[in-house]
Every structure is written in structure tokens, then in C-alpha cells.
Amino acid sequence: MHYIKMHGAGNDFVLLDNRDGHIRAEEYAALARRLCARRLSIGADGLMIVERSRKGGDIAMVFLNTDGSLGEMCGNGARCICRYAHDHGLAGEEQRIETTAGLVIGRRLAADRYRVRLNDPSVIRPHVELCLPERSLDCFYIELGKPGIPHAVLHWEGWDRLARRALFELGALIRTHSAFPRGANVTFWQRAGHNRVKAITFERGVEDFTLSCGTGAGSTAAALHVLGHADGDVTLDFPGGTLAVSLTETDGAVRDIYLTGPAVTVSEGEYIGT
């Protein structure tokens, strides 16, 4: 089975091209669990499967988390898919990718740098109170696309000074909080300058922090604008690299979220495991 390994700011993926239908859809979940297992297989934060377009796009993308669950969309993964489409002659300088959350449009800026337009928010709740065992937290909740990718965004100055275990336990607790019926990705951010933040995301389906999160970046930028913490393009420094977000915000309504960052091909080969 031929695969390609890619990453966007450290958020890494295994990509399989299934335009010819040689992989049955019912095999996808098991493949994700098998191929994404770190130290036991190729290892990745998710599995991306390229399919033929059905609604006028260049190609379709099916995204699965490491636990085999279906993801609505992935911003870093979408940039990697856009690069794959361009490099393999499936799309030109602009790429149209069909996802579960809707059509994503990408553009090549350089050989290893792409911009994608994330799905517009379908839900925004600026202040959600989270009652935790030892404290209450105020978070910004947003869903990108429809069905939306759920994100909880929390301003936490000094999150990077928390012990790794404490931060993990807090992220896991919020990710499964009863306020979020479908669960939520959880992003902590702190100020790093004007329109610049340092962030980290605990991802649903990975059940751990990843080196970066594209939709987490878009969601955080939306929160910063709606809450009055940003007045222009937002730069987000994640552990795995830097992402840039531009958007339009008017009276709490957010649209036209553009995510820019790296799309890197790491390796490719034949998977021969059983």
C-alpha cells in the first residue's frame, strides 16, 4: 500500500490516494488506527484519504483521527492535501477540496507554503462557563463548518509554565466537558505581542496535544477578534511552528478565515505491515 507522510507545522499525517476505490470505506477506521500508531507503525496525528470529487471539487478528502473516528476537517491537513493535489497534477495554483464540513479552497504560495480558506463558523458562543472540580473557567466556543468542528478557546497566561501532566489533565477534562455534547478541541493561548499569541491545542480524536492545529488557529484568531484582543491578522506560535490567520469580523460575525502555513512532504513508501 503506497503512502505519503506529510506535516503542517508539525501536525503530521499519513496520506493514501484512494481515487480508484481499492480501499473499502469500511476499512478506513482500522487503517487509521494501524497506520497512525506511533513507534508501532508509520505514526501520525491523522489519516487523510484522497477520493474522487462528488460535488465539483478537484478531489475529496476523508480525514480520520488516530483513534479511527471521522474528523469533519483539518486545517493543516487541508494544506497538505492541497499540495498533494498540485504536485500530482490534480489541481492548479488554486485547489478545491471537498471535506465533510464543506468545500475548502486552497492556494499555492510557494513549493512548501499554502493558504486555505477555512469553513465559516456555524456556531459562536463567546462566553461559556466551565465548572470544573477546583475552578470555573470562561471559554470561547466555536464550530467551523456545518457539521462544525468544535473548538473551545481559553485565554491562559502562563499555560507553558504548567507541568506537562497538569496541562494534559486540564486539556482532557475540558475536551470531554458536559458543555460540549460532541466533545471539543481545546486551545490555550497567551499573548506574545501585538496580534501574536503562543498557543497549544489538545485535539479530539488524538486525545493529546499536537504540535499545531490549523482549525484551532482559525478558532483562536476568531476568538481574539470577537473578544477585542486583536485588530488585524493574527500570528500563532505553536510548538511545531508558526501559522498565520486573516479573517473578517463584524459585530461578532466571523467569516472568510484564511489559514497560511507550511505543507511539507516528509517521505513516501510502501506499507507492508499486516
Brief account:
By secondary structure, the chain is of the alpha+beta class. 17% of the residues lie in helices and 47% in strands.
Provide the β-strand percentage band.
over 45%
Number of helical runs? Answer: 4
Distance between the termini: 11 Å
Average pLDDT: 96
Description:
The protein has helices at residues 28-35, 75-87, 164-175, 214-226; strands at 2-8, 11-17, 46-51, 59-65, 70-71, 94-99, 102-110, 113-117, 121-131, 136-144, 149-155, 185-193, 196-203, 208-210, 234-238, 241-250, 253-262, 264-270. It has 274 residues and is an alpha+beta fold. The chain has an 18-stranded mixed beta sheet that branches. A hairpin with a 2-residue loop joins β12 (185-193) and β13 (196-203). It is globular and about 50 Å long. The N and C termini lie close together (11 Å). The model has no long low-confidence stretch (mean pLDDT 96).
Layout of helices and strands, plus pairs?
Elements: E1 2-8, E2 11-17, H1 28-35, E3 46-51, E4 59-65, E5 70-71, H2 75-87, E6 94-99, E7 102-110, E8 113-117, E9 121-131, E10 136-144, E11 149-155, H3 164-175, E12 185-193, E13 196-203, E14 208-210, H4 214-226, E15 234-238, E16 241-250, E17 253-262, E18 264-270
Parallel strand pairs: 2-3, 4-6, 11-12, 13-15
Antiparallel strand pairs: 1-2, 1-18, 3-4, 4-5, 6-7, 7-8, 8-17, 9-10, 10-11, 12-13, 13-14, 15-16, 16-17
